[in-house]
Fold this sequence. Notes:
With 713 residues, the protein is an alpha+beta fold. The protein is 38% helix and 19% strand. It has 25 helices and 24 strands. It is globular and about 75 Å long. Residues 70-76 and 561-579 have low confidence and may be disordered.
Amino acid sequence: MSTEGLSEADAANEMMRLAKAIAHHDRLYHAEDSPEITDAEYDALVRRNAALEAAFPHLIRPDSPSRKVGHAIAASPLGKVTHEVRMMSLDNAFSPEEVAEWLARMRRFLNLPEGERLAITAEDKIDGLSCSLRYENGRLVRAATRGDGQVGEDVTANVAHIPDIPQTLPAGVPEVFEVRGEVYMEKQSFTALNAAQHDAGGKIFANPRNAAAGSLRQKDASVTARRPLRFWAHGWGAVSEVPGATQSEVVAKLKAWGFPVSPLFTRIEGDAAALVAHFMRIGQARPTLPYDIDGVVYKLDRLDWQERLGFVAKAPRWALAHKFPAERAETTVQGIDIQVGRTGKLTPVGRLAPVLVGGVTVTNVTLHNRDEIARLGLRVGDRVVIQRAGDVIPQVVENLTRDEPRPDAKEPDFSKCPECDSEAYAEVGEVDVRCSGGLICPAQRTERLKHFVGRKALDIEGLGEKTIADFFARGWLQSPADIFRLEEEHRDDILKLEGWQEKSAENLFKAINAKREPDAARLLFGLGIRHVGEVTARDLMKHFHTLPALRDVAERAHQTTWRDPVTQTSGGRGELGALNEMSLIESIDGIGPSVVEALGDFFHEPHNVTVWEDLLREVTPPRYEVKTVASRVAGKTVVFTGKLETMSRDEAKAQAERLGAKAAGSVSAKTDLLVAGPGAGSKLKKAAEFGIEVVDEAGWAAIVAEALWGGAG
């Protein structure tokens, strides 16, 4: 989509959505090793964001994906390591024209005379997990993953079990030298590992990259030792001395010190055509390589020129990743199943006649949603072209037999959840169909339970993800109410489990019982009702005060809405009573029709009502009242932007609420005060346009201190 004709408001909104989407996929890929979109789809998001930032540079966000590398590491039993020299990402190219433009940009930046040739190194881009190895006086002292580029995970004990990584280096190496490269797993080893995992009932990995990442990031290094991991070096970080004047010279040193390097590493003097020709040669050899690659990395050879070129936000100007296009093959659709995700989303999956694509046998393909099936005209028995875009998740790109008659073909049924038989629906303006079963749907239950006990919901300490999953598998936890019956029904069972002692069990039961009179807004948020986030939950409870009062209005509003039996989208019959009930909820600032509809859907499903009533027999939320103090921002709207350095965004919003103000997410003519931290961008500009008062974090602290302590702080 072009940026031509796009308004600033629309561009800002799209950039906000892209920042959130890319951050979500970064977390799945880098922190959880479980990507849900293809590399090509991810690259498309990044390229769209880059196009918008080029067209609207003044709207670049503080949390822009162009400024980030990887993802902050998730909560982990492994220690954290701060990289002395940041581990950067690489910019991507997808065409010969982009490679030529990269070379031209470097020439312009360096102001090189016409005809002076650039020497470029080229090596295959292995699909692995980035790792930094720090050697001091020739001895390996620390190994760390990339993480977000600044902070990674300490995997020193784990890499000791990778034969390719030397524990000591030869005499004469620099006093400090950080070797950087990729931990990976060869295709044959990956296949054998998955077969062993299947036989043992263990986790099946999606691809060699995920297998390598999961194997390296183990708390128990003995697990890593049993996994067939490899390593090769391609660069360096912090060093006391660089042993060469060019990239190729230093890589040769790394090889001499005992580090594997790419067998396809080469040095090229020439133009873009020479680089692309090498790219094509590696692409032709790709299916026969023992490891997965997804492109070729080019680097300017001269290190003094690298230093002059420097870096952009997250990538060096002197390096580029030239990515391969997706590989394709033909096969037949043998079946279409519907899977239910952890948020209730119904995703159709095509079952294929096995076909080899890029060295991997593909038997399943995601079909995304019912609109995609309609777009492709897809039926069981159709002959299709599939591709492994980015070499991750296969997808259908063309239906070769869509025009052939097949009157007996049946369309997948999206009206009911295949897991729990609850109604399924799509909201107005959305293509995704979702199960309304929520808390009773087996496909969603464990994730809902984890959400229910999470920090922003009931915050029950001791009920982590593994404990929830374990108790659920044993049949002890099926709904939130079961949490409050654990002590009575399963105390003795828990004490028999490995790792549980009398003290740890007592602590768990104490934490659970402390939540028997929970905050009503946290409880409502914890139920995971679609569109009811933590802020919306607070807004609803501030208005209705009790959960029964909210339920009563939501049920009456839903009684006179309907769903189209074909499209499964919602509409209103227009009865005055329903409109009154809906307007009662929608009159709350920040609450829209989607929230009314989601609440009605939740209480319309008998299974959810059963779970709700069962829970309220175990807990008694007190009447929800927000205690406020008199302040100069009472009744006003406050927006926080930029980086807050002395408090979290949640704490700042809670302070605003206590002072009787509303914390909004965007600046408008109704905004009264903008609190701007470092990195404030478009919101600060918009506030200036509207003439809105702006204070920094210290100014906000003074407002809070004045209200709470009469100015003492």
